[in-house]
Design a protein that fits this description.
The chain is 38% helix and 25% strand. By secondary structure, it is an alpha+beta fold. It folds into two domains: 23-223, Distorted Sandwich (Acetylcholine Binding Protein, Chain: A), CATH 2.70.170.10; 225-321 and 391-422, Neurotransmitter-gated ion-channel transmembrane domain (Methane Monooxygenase Hydroxylase, Chain G, domain 1, Up-down Bundle). Keywords: Cell membrane, Chloride, Chloride channel, Disulfide bond, Glycoprotein, Ion channel, Ion transport, Membrane, Receptor, Signal, Synapse, Transmembrane, Transmembrane helix, Transport.
């Protein structure tokens, strides 16, 4: 009861459209079934495709995707649309609903839309031999798996994959109309952070549980421009490292000045490291090249702060006298307790005789070396050996740091840039 009036309305609408169509189109559309593909009983229909890349708007490392506006053109032959003449017919895009069109879709698309200002951006053109040209203007956001290990000296290879949704390889076959030249627009494309180094096309098949489907893949390689990161991150971090070395030329007695430089450079480097990660995925497991470099710079800055702490500690524990430490070191290494007690009494009664004390024979008065075999004497001898490695003049620590820190930083930089640029 309800189906008959609805069917009558559809017939009337079709007849109304037929009345306003030109006679040639009416002749073509008459008896045409848009629900059946061309060559329904005579093998698959071949569909050629080409692309024009109008723009690549954004490339996001956080979301691992890129957004592009493309002109997608599809071409196939439908023997039911042949007509007499030598000129093609350009139809209104809204007449696409009356014809069969391929069910092509973008595989890795997260979201896409067809432009509809001022009308839907679709083109349909029919040639006398039944060839159909169908063009669309689409903006799509496509997933792109990125390897950020060498960020920001990385290269990324992204793809745009086109497949048939419902027709398998027995119904439809895809091919690029002009091979690698089927994709245009990348040569004149200008991106903010990237340069398109190479691009090529390929033809393959997608295998699913429901069958094998035709697939076209467009590959393009993007190289990141490193100049921005050199000015934004690398040069400031190098300058902070150099600034931390200024403390080596400041007197060790100027505690506030050296501590201020060390703490300020450490905090500034920490802020720079946090700012460098704001444009990257927070849960990314990659150790990136920029993280390695910032870690190296932070280590040198923190090392400069520790250097002053060590130098200041050695300065505070340095004795003002040079002879008395030798005497006490000699007494600590004395082999017998009786001889040590006599030498200490002699030193306390006459401090000026310290030189003669150090030259006193250890085996005087017939003392034997019974004490040398005790554990305490062994520990004292080990302490004497360790004393040889003490810094005699803590002020020389700064002199060593002035040479070792810059040289180490230059060597590490050479290995860093060679590895990440050429390997």
């Amino acid at each position: 009861f309800f189906f008959i009036p609805f069917r009558s309305i559809q017939i009337l609408e079709a007849e109304g459209k037929g009345e306003i169509l030109p006679p040639t189109i009416q002749k073509i559309i008459k008896g045409y079934n848009k629900y059946l593909r061309p060559f329904f009983d005579n093998g698959p229909v071949s569909i050629g495709m080409s692309l024009d890349i109008a723009s690549i708007d954004t490339i996001s490392e956080i979301n691992m995707d890129y957004t592009a506006t493309i002109f997608l053109r599809q071409r196939w032959t439908d023997e039911r649309l042949c007509f007499d003449g030598n000129k093609s017919l350009s139809l209104d895009g809204r007449l696409v609903e009356m014809l069969w069109v391929p069910d092509t879709f973008i595989v890795d698309s997260k979201k896409s839309f067809l432009h509809d200002i001022t009308v839907e951006n679709r083109l349909i053109r029919i040639y006398p031999n039944g060839t159909v040209l169908y063009a669309l203007r689409i903006t799509t956001t496509v997933a792109c798996s990125m390897d950020l290990t060498k960020y920001p000296m990385d290269k990324q290879t992204c793809t745009l994959q086109l497949e048939s949704w419902g027709y398998n390889i027995n119904d439809v076959t895809f091919y690029w109309t002009r091979g690698n030249d089927s994709v245009r627009g990348l040569d004149t494309l200008r991106l903010a952070q990237y340069t398109v180094e190479d691009h090529f096309t390929s033809v393959s098949e997608a295998v699913y549980e429901t069958g094998r489907y035709p697939k076209l893949v467009f590959h393009f390689e993007l190289k990141r421009n490193i100049l921005y990161f050199i000015l934004e991150t690398y040069i400031p971090s190098i300058l902070l490292v150099v600034l931390s070395w200024v403390s080596f030329w400041i007197s060790q007695s100027s505690v506030p000045a050296r501590i201020c430089i060390g703490v300020t450079t450490v905090l500034t480097m920490t802020t720079l490291m946090m700012g460098a990660r704001t444009s990257l995925p927070s849960a990314n497991c990659f150790i990136k090249a920029i993280d390695v470099y910032l870690g190296i710079c932070f280590s040198f800055i923190f090392g400069a702060l520790l250097e002053y702490a060590v130098a200041h500690f050695c300065t505070l524990h340095r004795l003002s006298s040079k002879e008395i430490p030798k005497v006490f070191q000699f007494l600590d290494c004395c082999p017998t307790k009786h001889l040590c007690s006599e030498l200490k009494l002699q030193l306390m009664s006459n401090p000026a005789s310290s030189e003669s004390v150090t030259k006193t024979p250890l085996t005087s008065k017939g003392e034997d070396f019974i004490g040398c075999s005790s554990p305490m004497s062994v520990m004292k001898r080990l302490s004497c050996i360790f004393d040889c490695f003490r810094v005699k003049n803590p002020y020389h620590i700064d002199n060593y740091a002035r040479f070792s820190f810059p040289l180490s930083f230059i060597i590490i930089n050479v290995f860093y840039w060679i590895y990440y640029l050429y390997f």
